Fold:
Amino acid sequence: MKHLIAAILAATLSTGTAWAEDPLPIRIGAASAVDHAPVFIGVEKGIFAAHGLDADVVMYQSGVDMVNGLMNGAQEVNVMGSVPFLSGISRGFPLVLIGHLHGDPNRTDYSDNQSVIASAESGVKKADIAALAGKRIGLPRGTGAEGYLFGLLKSAGLSEKDVQLVNVQPAELVTALTQGDVDAISIWQPWAATALTKIEGTVEVVAGGLRGLL
Structure:
């Protein structure tokens, strides 16, 4: 799934050379995701500043929350996944694609950062996607984690109707899996690695993949 940088293009973004004399304040919506690291590095290393931008990162749990923040004027730009971006477009939100974070718009997917992790009690084994049938799967709805899961299910001859989706925010997924509220989770890094590290017996059912499926 292609990760995108989406924004409403404000009139102030067309000020051109004025940036060099008077840095343009810009708020960037981002989440705790490994592939959002370039945003934080850009701020820390002064890359935004070198291009005339006084950047401030506004943190969210997911792209769904970011779109809502963008529509409410909390920030001017988002770095986000394709699923919430396209969902916003389909609802008529005035979102504009600026560029592709991963630098290759021709790839069929960007699922490398996504994983499905199952609890020991679920009985789901590594690479056994079909075993997810009938399971409760926690994930933030409307995000790339959901699109990733749907692609996995399709590859195993299943659909979303064959599982029980439980809407859980990323920061709460480890607790949900620990407490047995869900049998498995579908999520991006670093949350997948956190679950594997903190919960004994968890199984990485699958990580990445899906070439040509999304």
Remarks:
- The first helix runs from residue 37 to 44.
- Residues 174 and 198 are 8 Å apart (CA to CA).
- The first strand starts at residue 3 and ends at 7.
- The chain has seven helices and ten strands.
